[in-house]
Design goal:
39% helix; 8 helices; alpha/beta
Length: 231
């Protein structure tokens, strides 16, 4: 079964996504900025409201994915706090100024995450070399998902890149999580052409396809139905 992850920004989003058949949530705030760290109150409320796993983004600002010492101090505090909830995983991404993965920063997050798994988010798509970045992430056992659009604004324009990454991930603990620009109508052929095992929806399963609108339970259910029809 193809895993279906849906972005939630509210408790109502989370409930609608679960009712529609989502397997997992990515909890964020500030969806218009690409997602920032949600409050502990929201995290705890969403975890209490649903039975499916909740992955929580830790991103202190939307300026860039290159972080200074103060940014990391904030991020590590957030990770420590989130690790004390029943969150399923942490969602992070960090780069060096040269476009390589900031392995030192990633290691620090893993160290304080208290065993939680990590998804490396779409900072990955801004890496200088996606294949080198993916190989770097495979060196970290804690990184079990890489969210990517294949380096393109829309993942639908990067089927070849996604298929290549899926091939690199085969036999590892890491799953390629394809997202950004994915639509419900395109999801089944996209999965068929790329072999991807997990997909990630934001605007595509919201009312009228708008990022700031609520999650549309019917759209989530249609995505789930189309994915299941492939199985």
């Amino acid at each position: 079964m193809t895993l279906l992850e849906v972005i939630a920004t509210t408790v109502a989003d989370a409930r609608a996504a679960e009712r529609g058949g989502a397997n997992r949530l990515e909890l964020i705030t500030a969806i218009g900025e690409g997602g920032l760290t949600p409050s502990i109150g929201l995290i705890e409320s969403v975890i209490e409201a649903v039975a499916i796993p909740v992955n929580v983004i830790v991103r202190p600002h939307s300026r860039s994915f290159v972080y200074d010492a103060d940014d990391y101090a904030v991020m590590l505090r957030d990770v420590r706090a989130i690790s004390k909830t029943r969150a399923n995983a942490i969602v992070v991404g960090m780069l060096r100024a040269d476009g390589s993965v900031d392995t030192d920063g990633l290691a620090r997050v893993i160290e304080v995450a208290d065993g939680l798994q990590l998804t490396f988010h779409r900072a990955f798509d801004e890496a200088r070399d996606l294949l080198v970045a993916f190989d770097t992430l495979l060196q970290f056992d804690a990184v079990t998902n890489v969210l990517t659009s294949g380096g393109k604004p829309s993942v639908l324009d990067a089927e070849g890149a996604i298929a290549t990454l899926v091939g690199k991930a085969a036999g590892t603990r890491c799953t390629v999580l394809a997202g950004a620009g994915l639509t419900v109508d395109a999801v089944a052929p996209f999965v068929a052409s790329t072999g991807v095992l997990a997909v990630h929806f934001g605007s595509g399963v919201r009312v009228d396809g708008k990022g700031l609108a609520p999650v549309d339970e019917a759209r989530v259910r249609r995505a789930r139905t189309l994915l299941d029809a492939r199985a």
